[in-house]
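How it folds:
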Amino acid sequence: HVSLLGRMLYATHVHGEAGTDTNHYGTLEIDPVVVGYAVTLTSCGNAKDASLTDGGAVLKHSIHLNSVRTPSSGSRYDYRMYALVHPDAMACAPKLQQMGYELLVRDLPVPVADIQNAEYREKVVTNGCCGASEFVKLHAYTLVQHDIVVHLDLDTLVLKPLDDLFDAMLHHSPSSSSSSSLTTEFAVTKDIEFGKPLPANHRIDAFFTRDYNMASKRMKHVGVQGGFLVLRPSLSVYEEFQTIIREGRYHID
């Protein structure tokens, strides 16, 4: 079964360092936008398992290689690393802190006992890899000091700069008041929708991938893969998710 978080994300979205940016637009003497990159740590697991240390180090290095801090990448965006840490995972969290992640201790957005839908309340604790603890990922929406936050799982890595996605979110907007030197036309023409144009006159608040591996035949819509989410932080959206969880709004379709 696809995770409850994945379906909830689908329903909601469908229904640093200063530097000089040199690229084909010329030389921009501006500080680069700092994108927040967040991972979630829900438990420590096996104390002898090196996947936390290795995964955290490889992921951070891959982000560094595809940022403005590596000029050969061509990226115009800086980064800052965060770890959203459930209280049960505090024992192993310092390993990430030593690598340069800022630790943010965060509990569940809504206590399980407060979920009103009895069936939802019962199933959420055993759903997916992490049960209700997976909802800790939603705290990425509270990092409002950033224009964009990318949430990634610790078993992922970045192979190319994500500038096209960031540009589309920051500069593809129905508003013409953007002060950026990049044009809306630039963002619109980027091939980030598999050959399809970006939706006209709509602000883009998130990019996501679908979790086809977790889909079932009875599902009308495939849920969101929680291991990769590019989002625009918003406390109002975070509060909307809290309401969805509290009410137990969960639909198979």
Notes: The radius of gyration is 19 Å. The chain has seven helices and eight strands. The CA atoms of residues 7 and 204 lie 19 Å apart.
